[in-house]
Amino acid sequence: MFDFTFVLPGSGAVPVGGFKIVYEYANRLTLLGYKVSVVHSPNIELSLKPSSIKRGLGYIKRSIDKSYIPRWLELHSEVDVRWVPKLQAKYLGNSKVFVATAWQTARSVAETAGKDAKGIYLIQDYETWSGSAQEVKATYAFDLTNIAISRWLQEIVISTGNDCHYIPNALESKDFYITQSIEDRNPCNIGVLFHPRESKNFATSLEALKIVKQRHPMLRAKVFGATRPEYAFPEWVDFHFRPAKAELRELYNSCAIFLTASKTEGWGLTGCEALQCGCALVASNIPGHREYAIEGETALLFPALSPQTAASRIEELISDRTLRIELSTRGNQLVNTFTWDRAINSFLKLT
C-alpha cells in the first residue's frame, strides 16, 4: 500500500515541465517518510490498426529498456516508478491517495480512488492542445480534489461550477541560482527555449531575435530544447540539446535576457528558472506568465503574436542597463519565494 500514487500520461524519457513538478513532489514526499509511486502509462488501445500496433511495440520496448524512467532528473531511490499499458485500476495498484496530473488521467484516478482512497487532480494547464475544451472541462467535475498551479487555471475550473484550490508551482533553489554577476553580463546574450509545439510559439521568438540582430550585430542567442529543430538556425544561434542541469544553469547565467513568446502556459517554468539565474525577462503577456512576470516590475511583456513588440522590449533592456538590472533583481527575489516547503505543506493539508 502506497501513501501517494501519481499518474502520468506517458513516458518520462523526455524533459517536460509538468512531469518535473510531479517528480519533485514524489521526491519531497519520500524524504518526509511517505511511500510514493509514480505510474506512467501510454494508455494503449489493443487493436490490429497499424498505429495501435506501433504503440504496443513502443510500450514493449520501453518495458525492456526501462526508458520510461526519467534520466534527466534524479529521482529518490525509494520512489516506485512503474510503466503500465493502460489507465485502469488493476494497473494503478493500492494507495491511500491517487493524484491525476493531466486531463487524460483524471477519469481513471477518480474511478480507482472511489470510496476507499482520496483522489487529487493536479491541474497544470488548460490542456486544449491535447483534447477539446469540452473534454478537458468535463474532468473538473469528477469526484476529485482540484488543485490548480496558477490563479488563471483556478478561475477556469471555478467558472465550470467546480471547487478548486490554488498551490503555486515551487522552484528548486539548489538547481538554479546566480553564478555570474547580473551587472557584468553581456546585454546582447539572450536565452530562449526551443519547443516544436505550436503553442510555444518559437517562431515569434526567432523572428524577434532576427529583428534585434539587424540593429545589434553583437546579439548571440543561446537556445536549448528537448527536441532538435528540423531546420538550420542562423550562425549566431547556439543550440544546446537536452543540457544537463549544471549546463542549463550556466547557460541561463551566461544570458542577460531571457525571451519566451508562448501563446499559452499553465505556468511558464523556464521563465522562472531564468529569473532564478538572474536573467531579465521578456515574456508574452499571457496568464501563465503573469503569475510571476509583472510588467515593469519583474519583466517586460508583449503580445504573443507580435515579434516587432518583442524585439522592441528586448532593445529596451539592451540599451537601458539600469532597467535590466532592476528587473533581474526584483524578478529573482520574487521567484525565490516559491518554495517547496510551502507547496508540500499546502498539498498535505488537502490530502
TrEMBL record:
<dbReference type="GO" id="GO:0016757">
    <property type="term" value="F:glycosyltransferase activity"/>
</dbReference>
<dbReference type="InterPro" id="IPR001296">
    <property type="entry name" value="Glyco_trans_1"/>
</dbReference>
<keyword id="KW-0808">Transferase</keyword>
<feature type="domain" description="Glycosyl transferase family 1">
    <location>
        <begin position="198"/>
        <end position="331"/>
    </location>
</feature>
<dbReference type="GO" id="GO:0009103">
    <property type="term" value="P:lipopolysaccharide biosynthetic process"/>
</dbReference>
<dbReference type="Pfam" id="PF00534">
    <property type="entry name" value="Glycos_transf_1"/>
</dbReference>
<protein>
    <submittedName>
        <fullName>Glycosyltransferase involved in cell wall bisynthesis</fullName>
    </submittedName>
</protein>
